[in-house]
Amino acid sequence: MSDNIQDFSDLAALQEADRRHHLHPFTDPQALVSAPPFIVDNAKGVFIEGQNIRVLDAMAGLGCVNIGYGRKEMADVASAMMQKLSYYHSFAAVSNPPAAALCEKLASLAPGDLNKVFFANSGSEANESVIKLVHMYWQLKGQADKRIFISRDFAYHGSTIAASALNGLTAMHSPFGIETSGSVEHVTAPFWYRFGGELSPNDFGIQAAKSIEDKILELGPDNVAAFIGEPIQGTLGAIIPPDSYWPEVERICRKYNVLLVADEVVTGFGRTGTWFAQEKFGFQADIMTLAKGLSSGYQPISAVIINDDIASVVTEKPEVLQHGFTTSAHPVAAAVALKNIEIIEREGLVERVAGEIGTYFAEIIGALSDHPLVGEVRICGLCCGIELAKNKATREQYPYEFSLCNHVSQAAIGQRIIVRPGGNVVMMFPPLIIEKSEIDMLAKGLRIALDHVYGMLVAEGMAG
Ligand SMILES: Cc1ncc(COP(=O)(O)O)c(C=O)c1O
């Protein structure tokens, strides 16, 4: 390879360098033994490209590239800000123009009295910051025993230690010896398709919310600090709750004086057809976390927005907030986030998801529910989970060991489409700028991929 570190022309050398030296997140290292890493080197709109392959990215990266890839005006803003103020910190009452403007903008967009913003760099850090702010709030209120967080099965709130403990995925606890007992309790996810049995979705939504009330009563309301949830559980199945769920969760939290935290890291910035999914599902959180769509992945930036009550409690005493990051409120990231929001507003992307494009997506992708391998297609805005099932009537699943979703996503790559497997669900969270013709391409490619996997099951005599 050339001595010039910016010379990226030798693909084989880059793959080898990466294979030797890159410890990849959420990657089975064996996958890199059998095949080199796939090197993505450019992206535009809804397409990513690498190794001479161009693929429609129906996952918007990791559900983050809301405005699509490769926008010049985003690059221009980053470049201009980098030349003007490449960095300065926000500790000790210092700020910078884009950070000041961004927190005001976020307060104006956020529902209710979510008005005060703490900046971090990732969704994990935002949720980690929530845990500290909530502990601080209850201590200052003289209720220091209120320390337990209630979260849910299948939840994903990040990968730092405390955020991992919030996750409802034991696979993320055991390799690191992360203990949840005493700090986080998990309750039922509002996952009607899997756990709703004979109940109607709305009756099941009430039952799933009641599992929170039961847990609060079991632990004692004086020990419960907060309930945290993603309005739609994205990471493992695009779990779209029944309409009855969130208003009931809010009622329960209010009744027992438990703070309600909405992790809108995925659902924020238009993905469900409203700026934030709280508006869609009809509830108001006390704290909201944001990342991903805040900058559409153009820069690492995240935010915690707290309501007026929490803000007044945590700021009332002349004591230094013992929390923060070197790059909190980074001027370049803040400028990029502001431009991202400007684009979402200017192009009416939220309205687009609520209107024509969301409706088209629901119609065209929803039609895949007639496929013999598909039990249900769940869609809310541009969040989609295609649940594979062995028996449509009983909602019986194929065994996880069949890895059917992995096979579907592999076959989809053959059709030049990226979707994400999660358990028995094929997920899509495409950029909000996706066009009708691209949705057609998705539906067509996915049907071929589903046919392929179903054909394999039939050939082996294992189809439901
Ligand atoms: C709902 C939710 N919260 C938090 C996170 C963690 O965000 P990050 O990967 O930026 O730390 C994610 C990431 O996928 C997420 O989906």
Arithmetic mean of pLDDT? 96
User: Given the structure, what is the number of helices?
Assistant: 17
Task: Give the helix proportion (percent range).
Answer: 40-55%
> Biggest sheet, open or closed, and with what strands and sense?
7 strands, mixed
Number of domains: 2
E-strand count: 15
Q: What compounds sit in this structure? A: pyridoxal-5'-phosphate
CATH topological fold name of the largest domain: Aspartate Aminotransferase, domain 2
Output the CATH homologous superfamily of the largest domain. Answer: Type I PLP-dependent aspartate aminotransferase-like (Major domain)
Question: How are strands sequenced across the largest beta sheet?
Answer: 4-10-9-8-7-5-6
Q: Uncertain runs with pLDDT below 50, 5 residues or more? A: none
Structure description:
The chain has 464 residues and is α/β, with parallel strands linked by helices. The chain is 40% helix and 15% strand. It has a seven-stranded mixed β-sheet, sandwiched between helices. Helix 5 crosses helix 13 and helix 16 (404-414) crosses helix 17 (436-459). The mean pLDDT is 96.
